[in-house]
Every structure is written in C-alpha cells, then in structure tokens.
Design goal:
Length: 475
C-alpha cells in the first residue's frame, strides 16, 4: 500500500464516520467566526434552542465591517458610520456574549483579520481541522492544518456538533523547486501557480505546496500562498510541518505548553506526506522562471510578469478565452499589447489576509523608505492585519516610513480588500492591491484591481505606475 499524503493523514485523524456513498463525518477542532457569515448560524441555534457543543473551540473577531480609520473606531462599535456594518459588528458582539465565545472586539489589540489572528494567537495549530465561514480559511493550512471555508449552515452545524459532513478531496501536489530571484515573493509564486493551472485548476483537490521554495519560505509566506489556494479552485492548501512551523507556533497564547507541547511535537513531526505517497495530480514550476506578477484582468488567472504585456484578444484562438479577455480589457480600461509598466495607478492598497502580516509590511516599508508617493496616486492605504501586527510595526518605526512617504497608516480591517466598509475604490480607478481577488466591483463599484506583492505595490505607489521591483531593489 502506498504511503499517505499530509491530507490523508489529517483526514484519517479526524474521521468520525465514513459512509458508503462517499460522505463522511469529520471532527472539527477549531472554528473561527466573523461577523459576515455567523448571524444566521447563531439565529438558527437560538430558534432550535441548541447550545454550543464546545464554546472554547471557537474564536471570534470582527474584520470585514470594521472601519480602518481610527477616528471612526474611537467610539467603539457605536461609532461605526455605515448602518449595516455597525449592526453586523454589534450582532457578533451580542452573539458571542450570549453563547460564551471568546471574541476580540473592535478596539482589543488582538482584533484583526480572522486569518491573521488565528495563527498569530496559536489558535490554529498543526494537525487541527480548522473551519470558518470564509473562503480564505485555507490560509491556516500553512501550519500543517486541514483548513477550509464553509457556508453559514455549516457554521451552525459546527457550532452545534463540532462535526461536519464532508467528502474527501483528491490529492494535488504543487511543487516549486529551485531558488526565487531577489524581489520575487510568495505572492508572485502563488499568482504564477494560478496563472499556470487557472482558477478551476485545483477544483476538487486539496493542494499541498511542496518543494524547496516552500521549505525555505517563512510562515508568513506560506500563509500568503495557502491563502490563495481557493483562487486556484482548491478549498484546501497545505504545507508540511517542519522546524519553521514549530518555531512559529511555540509560545503563542493558545499553543500547548510544557508536557503538552512535547506530546504535540511527537504528533506534529509526523505531519508531512510519506515519501511513497501518491498524488492524483502533480504540477511543477521552476522557481527561477518566476518574475514579479501583476494581474491585468478581472480574474486572478489573468496574470502576467511585470515585464510582460496585456494580451491581445485577436491573438487568442479559444473563443471563450477570447471573449473573457475582451470583456476584461473593457472593464479594466486597458488595450491589448500595452506594457504592464504603462498601467497608471490611482490608488494602492497594502493589506488583506493575503499580505498584511509583519513581514509584508517590512517588505513594503523597505521599498517606500525615503521615497514619496507619486502625484497621480491619490490614496495609499497601509492596513495591518491585526492590532498586534500594528503594534509590532510601530515599534519598528514602519508607520513613520509609510507616513513620511505620504501613505496612510490604518487600523486592522479587511479594509479595501472588499467594499464592505468605508474603504472603497472609486469607479474607473486603478488600484495596485496586495489582496487576493480582482473580480469586477470587488474593491468598489467600477473599481479596477491589479493583484501584486507588497513590494510591487509600494514600488508602484512611488512610481505612479507598475515598475519591476527587481530594478528598484537593485538600484
Ligand atoms: C465575506 C466572506 C464570506 C468572503 C469569503 O468567503 O471569502 C470574503 O472574506 C471574501 O474574501 O470574499
Ligand atoms: S481580507 Fe479580504 S479576502 Fe481576507 S477575509 Fe477579509 S475580505 Fe476576505
């Protein structure tokens, strides 16, 4: 019998019951909760008069609807200007009080984007099953956890039973070997992978990211990569546990201590695919061939190198692809054949659960240092992923670097990643964004999103158009 993949091991360890029809009951170790997808779940429990199975398995934080402007947060929840946002955040607070769930409320320093605070707190650990009513839950797979997004009815189910009905996915390995060139980041790696496999490439699969590039990557970088597994069609993204994982997890508030730590290590050290494990699909990329990436269209797979050009629809033979490209270019206000570096920017957003961790902010600050935002760039928002990231960045003086460059330094929120709070992109505006989705209207009605790394975003803010960050750091 062939060995097991990491996914097989995590699945088997949480299997409660396997049915002949392929469905299975899986035990859930941790549920993360935010304000958008939880209200109906709590309402369902209230109506049915059901308590939680294990309130301490849940951890909540508001993120999507919280304003990133300090002035709008000074009054706490009551000060949130948008009615829907205020009600959403208040409802989360009330539900967590009623059901006894730990919540990091709006001005708690531990508050932040749910996918940033889980690992930061040690609330997501290797070997866990982690769910959240949010498609970017795959982020937590970076720790060697089995993590995926769920719908609101499943949120209710997990709250009530700590179990979920699932079907096992197929195993896919995305292998990137070699060394990344300077200026090429984890964000570029995952964008290049999506460019290669397409947004449906991982459908029905759990992706493990393997190879020397991921082994040599920091935990923050691995989180960036796993975060966007869903943009490649896979609900699950994972990286095997190694010393980098253990060093990251050790000493965090929710991490095991003393004897429990030793016991955990014994198990965690088994969390990698066996050498003879068989994957249903393997995709390989050469690290050295990856250049800084920029999306030009309205889907994450519409991506190319910063040294490339916007595709010409007339060069595309596949009629569906051709039509999609025409539509995308029209929405984006771009012409086929133009250089990526000729795309001018109105706005830059550095933040989101993809790229708002300390390492991302350090990278952006290193590029911004001593420079000034270009005149044509009206707004640059730098939004740390959590209050703790913000505090750390301020201790290092990163906030000053951003402010001196003419950028805004905000409070933890999903902010302009999606237009669910006051931070919205204007109609027709081009934004270099470190987030993960460039769908039409994602950052605001008629807004035009270009996905990039934090380094590339900062360099674009300074130049006013896209530039190859490799030239900037070599200059
Ligand atoms: C609001 C939430 C349900 C949604 C998600 O599931 O991902 C959001 O976080 C997003 O990034 O689009
Ligand atoms: S930062 Fe963006 S992608 Fe992440 S959870 Fe918030 S809205 Fe979703």
């Amino acid at each position: 019998m062939a060995g097991k993949t990491l996914y097989d091991k995590l699945w088997d360890a949480h299997l409660v019951k396997q049915r002949d029809d392929g469905t299975a009951l899986i035990y859930i170790d941790r549920q993360l909760v935010h304000e958008v997808t939880s209200p109906q779940a709590f309402e369902g429990l209230r109506i049915a008069g059901r308590p939680l199975w294990r309130s301490d398995a849940n951890l909540a934080t508001p993120d999507h609807n919280v304003p990133s402007l300090k002035s709008e947060r000074d009054g706490g929840v009551a000060g949130i200007v948008e009615d829907i946002s205020r009600i959403q955040v208040q409802t989360l607070d009330d539900n967590c009080d009623e059901f006894g769930i730990t919540e990091f409320e709006i001005n708690d320093i531990r508050q932040g984007i749910v996918h940033v605070i889980g690992p930061e707190q040690g609330a997501t650990l290797p070997g866990m099953t982690v769910v959240c009513g949010d498609s970017h839950t795959a982020t937590h797979g970076a720790l060697g956890a089995l993590a995926h997004g769920i719908g609101t009815s499943e949120v209710e189910h997990a709250l009530a039973t700590q179990c979920l009905i699932q079907k096992k996915m197929k195993n896919m390995l995305v292998k990137v070997e070699g060394e990344l060139n300077p200026g090429v980041t984890p964000k570029d790696v995952i964008l290049a992978v999506i460019g290669e496999i397409g947004t449906a490439g991982g459908t029905g699969h759990a992706i493990e990211f393997g190879g020397s590039v991921f082994r040599n990557m920091s935990m923050e970088g691995r989180m960036t990569v796993c975060n966007m597994a869903i943009e490649g069609g896979a609900r699950i993204g994972m990286v095997a546990v190694d010393q980098t994982t253990l060093d990251y997890v050790e000493g965090r508030p929710f991490s095991p201590k003393g004897e429990d730590w030793d016991k955990a290590l014994e198990y965690w050290n088994t969390l990698h695919s066996d050498d003879d494990a068989v994957f249903d699909r393997v995709v390989e990329l050469d690290a050295a061939s990856i250049v800084p990436q920029v999306t030009w269209g309205n889907s994450p797979e519409m991506v190319t190198g910063v040294n490339g050009v916007v595709p010409k629809p007339e060069d595309i033979t596949d009629p569906t692809k051709k039509a999609a490209t025409e539509r995308a270019l029209e929405y984006m206000g771009l012409t086929g054949g133009m250089s990526i570096t000729d795309i001018k920017l109105d706005c830059v957003f550095i933040g989101s659960c993809t790229n708002s961790r300390i390492e991302d902010l350090r990278a952006a600050a290193a590029v911004a240092k001593g420079n000034t935002v270009a005149d044509n760039v009206k707004r640059v928002l730098v939004v740390p992923g959590s209050g703790l990231v913000k505090e750390m960045a301020e201790k290092e003086g990163l906030d000053k670097i951003f402010l001196e460059a003419g950028m805004e330094w905000r409070e933890p929120s999903c902010s302009m990643c999606l237009a669910m709070n006051s931070d919205k992109l204007g109609e027709g505006e081009h934004c270099a964004s470190t987030s993960n989705r460039n769908f039409e209207g994602r950052q605001g009605f008629g807004g035009r999103t270009h996905l990039v790394s934090p380094e590339m975003a900062a360099a674009a803010a300074i130049a006013g158009h896209f530039v190859d960050v490799r030239d900037v750091i070599n200059a």
